[in-house]
Specification:
The protein has 511 residues and is an alpha/beta fold. It is built from 18 helices and 23 strands. It is globular.
Amino acid sequence: MSSPLSPTLSQWLQKRHGLFIDGAARPARAAAEMPVIAPGHGGVIAHVADADAHDVADAIASARRAFRAPEWAGLSIRARARLINRLADAMEAHMEELYQLETLNNGRPLRETRAQLARVPDLFRYNAALAIARRDSVIPVEGNYHAFTNRGPVGVVANIAPFNHPLLIASRNLAPTFASGCTTVVKPSELTPLTTLRLAEIFTEAGLPPGVFNVVTGVGAAAGKALSEHPGINKLVLTGGTEAGRSAGAAAARNFVRQTLELGGKTPVIVFDDYSVDQAVNYAAFGAFVGAGQTCVCAARHIVHRRVYDEFVEKLARKADGLVVGDPFDPRTQMGPVVSQRQRERILDYVRIGAAEGARLAAGGVVPAELSESSGFYVRPTVLADVHPDMRVAREEVFGPFTVVLPFDTEEEAIAIANGSEYGLAAAVRTTDVARAHRVAKALEAGIVWVNDHHRVDAASPWGGVKLSGIGREFGQEAFDGYFDTKAVMVNTSNAPFDWFDVTQTNARLN
């Protein structure tokens, strides 16, 4: 397998990577470590510290000190915005290194990594602009009163990030954290911690004060649990599976911590018969197989009008069979490995579950023959056809290059199938009928709906789900506002004498 890493990055990987607390790397208290595996070849590429509850407490204490320190809390809004823009510039200057490191660590093809991460610095610039543009409200009230709101940063943010998009998802929460004046402890996935650790170093070198950005590496059951249940945090931001969110959210709720949780999904895509089948298939492959399908908004359920159903299945299967699976650093590769052997076995298990339920395997569902001797975690992009809505493969999140196809006859039936899920993160519609597009988008139970597209996001557009797909929103003004506590201030502008207990007083007002 080719890995054209820069000499600087190769040298960096050879270090023993500690926790990042108070602006510097340090080992875990118990000196525990864990290996980091490259999905592309299955080998160990680094060792990182394995944090326990004591390490997590140290990181939270560091973040709390920094939250009150004049180097951070004393910054004016404009000075903080200038600093955040410097962070964006520093990140941009290191992007080639970050592209390579992320591709090596999570197995995404380098072309995909570049396409996803190139715009990440702008998340910081957007939130810096929101900080400058922020206005608190003046509230008109009756009587001789001036009422207004005053917002302040909530405090210490616990940021638990997943393996699939480590740098993007960490950054989409770091940006409003810094712009609001909060501080943070980030717990990246134990599978893909490397870009987060490197980003902490880059930001510190660019002038971010110590303790504002701390990183604890470790497994979710230990470090993640300790972080989410610690009384020293003020906000929990987690992206992950629904069960992980349920567990961490319940722990944080005991301390009445505010939460933003982006959890599981089973994204429905409704394909109407007025839309180009070829274009629908291209979007289907993009939605289902980009990132090896390891996205919460993976196009997991294609609900296709019966008049074009057979053609759609045949062309999607052919498209899936034609994709080049392989080395993520090879420019010819169109889909890389999944993140681990465990994840690959989960996907193959669902192929067997689908067959037992009566679904037809139209494409994939196997380890690529040409990579059968590889130690990497490769699997062919998989399409199951003739699926019914009550099958497990149509209801449960697989989190891999795995999609199912179901037929429908009427618009109402398509909407009912799409909404017949416990998840509600994203949905998509394929149609040329403008009225139908608006009508169906409104009817779909999801936090995000794409019409004739998939996976698109913008720093200004809110992102999040309904039902078991989570609570709260990331990106946009909605996310930025979620990092503040709002204080209501009411000023009596009258000097008239007041004595509530003077019974001769008339027109007394209690509230």
